[in-house]
Every structure is written in structure tokens, then in C-alpha cells.
Amino acid sequence: RYDRARPAPPERLVEAVLEKGRLGAGARVLEVGCGTGQATRPLAERGLRLHALELGPALAALAQRNLARYPNVTVENVAFEAFGSERSFDALVSVQALHWIEPE
Question: CB neighbours (10 Å) of residue 90?
Fold first, then answer.
């Protein structure tokens, strides 16, 4: 239902993320709130290496299935606030999910 009811991001948004972030193939990107992977897919198709976080276990499982064909994508079922990483990223991307993050 989520994929049917929620529209995928427009192509111009994807292009703006790449342009404004100066991101090209191989860039390391942390995506917060990937949902089912609708915004993740076009970024993965352009060769970005994505580590996608999703708080909802059902959505994370669906994102893993939807994005299984992209070896450059990892989906992790974790809240952004609980995500601990020593890794560095070239950019953080969130499409309609930042409002779910605790302000603190």
C-alpha cells in the first residue's frame, strides 16, 4: 500500500540532490528514513553507495527486497538517533523523513 499511495520523488529532486551535493558515482551517502526505497533506487542507479536507515521494521524489510539488486545499497533497520558509526559519508539525504527525528 505504501508504494501505491506514496509517490516516488520527481526526477528533478534526484537531479538537484546530485547537483547541489556534488555527488557522483561512488559517493558515500547516508539516507535517513528510506521507507520502501523509492528515493534510494534512483540514487543507487546513478552509482552512489548508499547506507539507508529505516526505523520501521516492515518498511526496512520491504526496502531490502526492493533494493536487493543494488550491491551498492545497504538497508539497516535502526533509528537515526541510535545509529552509531565510525564511518564517514559524503552526504546525508532524507526525503520527507527529517520530521521523524528527535530534535535533541
Answer: 15
